[in-house]
Structure formats: C-alpha cells, structure tokens
Write a structure and sequence with these properties.
17 helices; four-stranded parallel β-sheet; about 20% strand; globular; single chain; 15 strands; D-amino Acid Aminotransferase, Chain A, domain 1; Dna Ligase, domain 1
Length: about 425
C-alpha cells in the first residue's frame, strides 16, 4: 500500500535542484568523492571506507587522530575532527575534499552536521548536508527518539507504546497506564549507554533522575585520559541534559536493518538479528543475517516519509511469542552491519556509489554464504570462548594487515602501566573495585 508522506513541507525548489538527480552529483562513470565523518573510534568506519573504495568511490576521512582507520592507505585525505571546533573542522574538511556526499558514522557527528547547516552562510555547504542526510525538517526527528516514533506511527508501522518524558511528572503519567517492565531512553546516546530497562516501579524515578543529570566533568576527564575521547568535554561545558522518553518493553530479541537510501528511496537493505551483544541493551558482537519482510517494508515507509539519504539503521525488537518486528528507534548514521556486502540488493556501499554515479549496481559476490557474522574485534577480545566463533564468518579486514594489528591492540585504558593505574584509581574514587579486564 502506498502511503503519502504527510511530513514537513518538503525542500525548496533551489534545494531540490541542487540535490536532485544522481547525474547532478557526478557524471556517469566519474568516481564520486565521499567524506566519512566520525568523532568516535568504531572499526566499522574503516570497513565502510574499504567497501566504498572497492565500489569505485574516492574516500576521505575526518576523525580524531586516534581513529584506527587512519592507517588505511586508500584515503584521499585524512583530516582531524577537533572537539573544540567541530563545525569549523567539518567546514574546512568539506572545503578541502569537495565531497559529493558526507556520511556520518556516529550520532554526535549527525548533530554537528545539523548545527553546521543552521549556522553556515555557505549555500553550497548547506545543500551538501541536505543531499547527504535529507531535508532539514527531518533533522529534529532524526535526533529525537520520541519524535521519530510519532512520525513512524503515522506511517502505520508496528511500534511499542511510547511517550516523551519532559519531566518526572510525565513519568508518573506514563506509569499509571504502562506497568513494568518498560524502557527509559535518553536522546543523544548510543551503544545502549542511554537505555535502562525498568523492571520494578520503584526504580523508575531514581533511574530517571540519574539519566537526566547534567554531563559530569569528572566523567569527561576520564574519557579524555583513559579513552582518548576529547569530545565528552563538550557535553560537560554546555551543561547538556538529555531529552527522555519511555517505551514499552517487548519480550524478544533485538534486530537491525542497515539501509542505503537516496531522497526517500530505499536502494538496498541488509537485515540482521542479534545473537550476542555487549550488554542487555548494547550493540551486537555476533549477528545472524536474515530476511524479514516486515522490517524491509517498515524501512521503505520511514525512509519515504522522512525523505532520507545516505546510510542509516533502524532498530527493532522481534517479539518471541509472535515473531512480529517492532520498530524501536532509528540510528541516523552508518551502523556496523552496513559495510558487510551480502550480494545484490544487500550491498549497501555498491548501491549508494552506483546511485551517485548514475549507473546500475554491479552484482558483486557476497562476502560469505554463512548467515552468522562475527564482528571484529569485539568478539575476539570480549567473548573468545563463544561457540559461534568456530562457525561464523569473521569480518576481519585481512587485506589490510596494519588495520588488523591496530584493532587487536588492547584498549588505551589497558595498554600502558600508567593508564592501568589511572583506571584503578578512578574506580576506587567511586568506592568500587576495578572490574577484571
């Protein structure tokens, strides 16, 4: 069934002309320039760069100096994403690279691109951001879990009950109609860190209070010293408090669909369900590739409604009792499953590059015929005894041995004797015993 979008007023005539047909981005056969942007250190960014390069794109990277992907020789340019001047860093990178598309690889970068679109006077830069992400009226929806689910609800997709929580009074209202268990979620967080499953009503208010505290300067300092993450200081300096929402709990298991899209059209998808995760609410370390018609149709409706472009992911819960796929949130950036090419229709990098160059996607072979994907290096380091290590496809970039070596290093907090001492001191300041590495 075709659904009208019913969302926003659409781009202006000038914006449509600038970001319109793929042929206006690159002439057929020309290699498109793609800028990958990240404030984090995820290895999936490096894997995506490799797949985009193999698909025929000229790829550049803006990231912290400590990002593991910077060892790759395939990049046209490697630029530094500076925590103290993020918008200036992005604007300078765009000026030097001249990209046809910018692909954000974490939520903080998505917000920086939105902010840059609001503040810049450079019309070409504004249009590049619109072409890369979608129309500006979708920006607030992409970064608000509650707003996103309201838009999705209007598209008739399957959702758990949900509600924005601007205050603790709103939480009281939610609990009068929704018994435990339910889930509290904080906007602007990722990898499950801003998600709390509430199983007892008495735990809800303390969890809400803890999750809405302003960013901690002490935690920001720890991130800088022990995790090489200078971006955490920004949240502390701006006294950020995340917007909150509540969501009904679905008894089942998590799943994700990675999507390549262009101006509201889905180009390719890859569906996966989590087999092993870092935590109860964390990302997958091992995934099973599946086909789920309901997830694909939900992706089509959401992408069309928001007129999205680029690479995104949608998270679902598969209900154990029924097998129904409940949409729970959107990741407005590349997710770890996106770089894994699984053949025609499921090769996201190839589909996106083909659209940018106005050619048909090539039918590249799938990386593996196996349905289990072991993400590298998380499972190797955190769960080496997992039995699926022996049967799944290991997403190891063997063709880039320097990258493999970098990814196999211990985390910074465990790499040197002085960082180990600092880590132990940190936990003792919290009145806790340091966890066993």
């Amino acid at each position: 069934m075709e659904l009208a979008s019913g969302f926003g007023s659409g781009p202006t005539v000038a914006e449509t002309a600038a970001s319109g047909s793929p042929a206006t981005v690159r002439r057929t056969g020309d290699a498109p320039r793609i800028l990958l942007a990240t404030t984090g250190h995820l290895p999936s960014t490096a894997r995506l760069a490799m797949e985009l390069h193999a698909a025929g794109a000229r790829v550049s990277l803006i990231s912290p100096r400590s990002h593991p992907g910077r060892v790759l020789k395939i990049f046209d340019r490697r630029l530094v994403y500076r925590a103290i001047a993020p918008c200036r860093s992005l604007e300078a990178a765009v000026s030097r690279v001249g990209p046809d598309l910018v692909i954000p690889c974490d939520e903080r970068t998505v917000r920086d691109l939105h902010r840059l679109h609001r503040k810049t006077d450079n019309r070409d830069l504004r249009l590049l951001i619109l072409r890369s992400l979608g129309p500006a009226d979708a920006f607030p929806v992409a970064t608000s879990r509650a707003e996103f689910l309201e838009v999705a609800r209007g598209q008739g997709v399957r959702l758990p009950p949900s509600m924005a929580l601007p205050s603790s009074d709103a939480l009281d209202e939610w609990m009068t109609r929704n018994p435990t268990p339910f889930v509290l979620k904080a906007d602007g967080t990722w990898s499950g860190f801003g998600v709390r499953i509430i199983t007892e009503a008495a735990d809800a208010k303390p969890a809400f209070a803890a999750m809405t505290q302003r960013a901690s300067g002490r935690l920001a300092l720890r991130e800088m010293v022990l995790e090489s993450n200078n971006f955490a200081i920004r949240s502390w300096l701006s006294a950020e408090r995340p917007a909150m929402s509540a969501q009904g709990y679905i008894d089942g298991w998590p799943a994700n669909i990675g999507i390549a899209c262009w101006q509201g059209e889905v180009l390719a998808t890859i569906c996966a369900e989590s087999v092993s995760t870092l935590s109860a609410t964390g990302p997958s370390t091992i995934a099973r590739i599946i086909h789920n018609d309901e997830m694909v149709e939900t992706a089509r409706r959401v992408v069309k409604a928001l007129r999205l472009s680029g690479l995104i992911g949608l998270d679902f819960m598969i209900e154990a009792a029924t097998g129904f796929a409940y949409l729970i949130e959107m990741n407005p950036r590349c997710t770890p499953i996106c770089p894994v090419p699984m053949g025609p229709g499921r090769d996201l990098a190839e589909a996106l590059v083909a659209r940018l160059t106005n050619r048909k996607p090539r039918e590249r072979l799938a990386k593996t015929e196996r349905d289990i994907v072991v993400f590298f290096p998380d499972t190797w380091q955190l769960d080496p005894s997992n039995q699926l290590m022996h049967t799944g496809y290991h997403d190891v970039p063997w063709e880039q041995p320097e990258l493999v070596r970098i990814l196999m290093r211990p985390e910074l907090r465990e790499r040197y004797w002085f960082t180990r001492l600092l880590r132990q001191a940190w936990w003792r300041l919290q009145g806790q015993q340091p966890p066993v590495p």
